[in-house]
Amino acid sequence: MSSSSTTLTAPTSTPSIAVAELDSSPNASPVAASSASSSTSSTAVASTGSGTGTDGSSGATASSSITPNGIKAGVAGFPDIVNTNKAALDQYAPYISWYSDYWPNTTDFTSGTKTVKGIGMLWGNGDLNETDPTAPIGTAAADDKNRYAAYTDLPASPAPDYMMGFYEPDWPAPYSSNMNAPTAATAWKATLGKLGNTLVGSPSMATQMDETWLTPFMEALGVTEPPWDYTCIHTNKNTSDGVKADVGYYWTKYGKPVWVSEFACVNDKSWTMCDQDTVNTFIPEVVDFFEKNASVIAYGYSNGAGLGSVWPLINSTTGKLTSSGNCYLDVLQGKVSSGQACTN
Questions:
Q1: CA dist 224 to 93, 108, 198, Å?
Q2: Which stretch of DSSP H or E encloses residue 109?
Q3: How far is CA 178 from its chain centroid?
Q4: Which of 21, 171, 221, 224 could form a disulfide with 176 if both were Cys (CB 3.0 to 4.6 A apart)?
Q5: Is residue 277 classed exposed, middle or buried when 0-12, 13-18 and 19+ CB atoms within 10 A define those classes?
Q6: Rounded distance, CA 268 to CA 329, Å?
Q7: First-to-last CA distance in the chain?
Q8: Are residues 262 and 76 in contact, defined by beta-carbon separation less than 8 angstroms?
Q9: What is the C-alpha to C-alpha distance for residues 313 and 87, in angstroms, rounded to an integer?
Q10: H or E stretch including 340?
Q11: pTM of the model
Q12: Tens digit of each residue's pLDDT (9 = 90 or more) over 87-110
């Protein structure tokens, strides 16, 4: 699910003033020492792990107390992956700590002795407007209602460890939650704003570093500081500099740790997909940046709609990893480093 599937002009971006602060040095940008406004979850442990260095060796990786099990890497936006693509997820399980599937009740996934954390999300407010000419086709409206109902059905105890905020409320349906800031603020107060023992993520923006939605959202909430523990961002770029610009914008503007809840290789000015050669160098470069940059606490390879035939991790016909899926796996395993290209 991605805003890219709409027929509207894709979001674009301009250069970030913060890129200089966000190079891939492990200590290039500060770590929010105490970023959580709510209680720290039992599974979010503070750690300093090892990331893929530019020379193929392991380099220091600063992990926030929010990073699930101290491992930043994950896979994002994969509905029902634990049932439809279990074999593929098994391959990633030793090297990732989390996955998401757009639902608030995402379950943990066990592969051998490794448990991958299911990260919940409150996708929308359960009220996509079916009479809106921009909006829902297919099952989007029903999915939104069902996801909201699943959220309200969550038990009060134990509280979920994590919950991501609304999915691209700044972009029209059907593949984004399409809410204005006051409507979203009302929904937030009734739901995510009441989660006292959960690490809560911000709403994610389709418009990336060009967003103008979060500040009015905060104003509608009546707050001057972000009411979330980490900022969820989507970055759809075809260069690592573009990715750094997106991260730099959110870190500088909102001052919260950045959870890259989706990243993909896309020319976002024309919404054209990267070819395999570009993907094969893009993945090593951006993973190296995510691992070494202290303001990034987690990142997930996007599997949303509208990302073409090269980027998806898994072949929908065979269920096996694609060339891009194997590239991501090779990078997470330390077989390919920044400055190198995947060859599968």
A1: 39, 35, 21
A2: strand 109-111
A3: 18
A4: 171
A5: exposed
A6: 25
A7: 26
A8: yes
A9: 12
A10: none
A11: 0.84
A12: 888 999 999 999 999 999 999 999
